[in-house]
Amino acid sequence: KAKAVESAKNYILGNWAGIMESVRAKDKSLQCSAEGHVSHIYSDRMSSRPLGWSRTGADKMARLRIYRQNKRDILELVRYQKKELPLAAGAEEVIYSATQMLAAERRNKNRLGKLADMPVYSIPYPQIKKIAALKNHIWGL
Prior knowledge:
By secondary structure, the protein is mainly α. It contains six helices and no strands.
């Protein structure tokens, strides 16, 4: 129960600036779609031209399609996301000491084992082409 409360607290604090911005927004009307309508919009993109979607990517694509279907301006959304919003109370930036950082690195190394020492590779060219095609497709929505 304590984890659920802590999770809810973190969610609210993490989104507090956005919540307050939407409350202060000029356009007070809330727009929504019925569940069937949302399902239709969602399935139109996700199944007619299927790609390999991660859970996060599928969620974001669905939200973006619904946002567009509700006749909201996607470019305005992008501009809004680039705005620097003030942090909510309790979510101030934390500065860690070098000792704390080294301890965290040791914990991660213990947790990850051999994976911690694996080199990081750059993205291969075919993967870059896929990413570029996806970005171009999103801008074409």
